[in-house]
């Protein structure tokens, strides 16, 4: 785990994993099929360690609390977002939280299909936030952010709106605004649930 946190998934081979465990690669193959099996076991262990506080009665608050807990737990390991995004792994230990989020979305007024769509939107938003956070966790001082440079001082004649927004961009650069952004996203997903139940189309067309 420590090697993954320090060096990332790409730097850790099956042979290195076996050496860290002080066994031969062939002995390791007796327990797992490949590197993905090892990563899945680690993801499952990390998910199982997450402590989920008792959710409040309000479904919207309960959803935000579940996502915040998942976000903070996953963010502790910079290699995790890439693994979840590229290898499409899912830990069995997280199914309880996923169930609770779906159930809370239904209690908030969504149909089951709307809840599935809302969950996917929030998951993709959360994964994107984790990837951005992992990418800025250890900034390279020799390579300043090109995004920050471009947004920080755009040509006001060519990009007047960006130039006007530059001070705000500089003020929030590097800040973790996940909680506030999640609340805004969830408010939008739950807005007008009574009307949206009647007008929503099928999830799969």
Structure characterization notes:
By secondary structure, the protein is mainly α. The protein has 12 helices and no strands. Helix 5 runs antiparallel to helix 11 (178-190). The chain starts with a helix and ends in a 6-residue tail after the last helix. Mean pLDDT is 80; it is low at 196-205.
Brief synopsis:
By secondary structure, the chain is mainly α. Helices cover 66% and strands 0% of the residues. It has helices at 2-7, 14-20, 25-29, 35-49, 59-75, 80-87, 95-107, 112-136, 146-152, 160-172, 178-190, 193-199.
The total strand number stands at: 0
The rounded Rg comes to 21 Å
Task: Describe the oligomeric state of these chains in a short phrase.
Answer: single chain
- Biggest sheet character: none
Helical coverage, percent range: 55-70%
What pattern of helices and strands is seen along the backbone? HHHHHHHHHHHH
Q: DSSP strand (E) fraction?
A: under 5%
Topology summary:
Layout: H1 2-7, H2 14-20, H3 25-29, H4 35-49, H5 59-75, H6 80-87, H7 95-107, H8 112-136, H9 146-152, H10 160-172, H11 178-190, H12 193-199
């Amino acid at each position: 785990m420590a090697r993954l946190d320090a060096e990332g998934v790409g730097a850790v081979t099956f042979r290195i994993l076996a050496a860290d465990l002080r066994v031969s690669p062939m002995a390791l193959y007796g327990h797992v099929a490949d590197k993905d099996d090892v990563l899945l076991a680690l993801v499952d262990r990390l998910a199982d360690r997450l402590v989920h506080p008792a959710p409040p009665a309000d479904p919207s608050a309960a959803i935000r609390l579940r996502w915040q807990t998942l976000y903070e737990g996953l963010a502790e390991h910079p290699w995790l977002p890439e693994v979840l995004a590229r290898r499409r792994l899912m830990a069995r230990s997280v199914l309880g939280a996923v169930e609770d989020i779906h159930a809370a979305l239904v209690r908030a007024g969504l149909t089951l299909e709307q809840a599935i769509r809302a969950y996917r939107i929030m998951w993709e938003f959360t994964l994107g936030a984790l990837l951005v956070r992992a990418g800025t966790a250890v900034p390279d001082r020799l390579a300043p952010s090109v995004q920050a440079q471009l947004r920080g001082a755009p040509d006001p004649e060519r990009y007047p709106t960006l130039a006007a927004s530059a001070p705000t961009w500089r003020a929030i650069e590097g800040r973790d605004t996940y909680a506030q952004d999640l609340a805004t996203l969830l408010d939008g997903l739950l807005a007008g649930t009574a009307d949206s139940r009647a007008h929503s189309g099928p999830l799969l067309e």
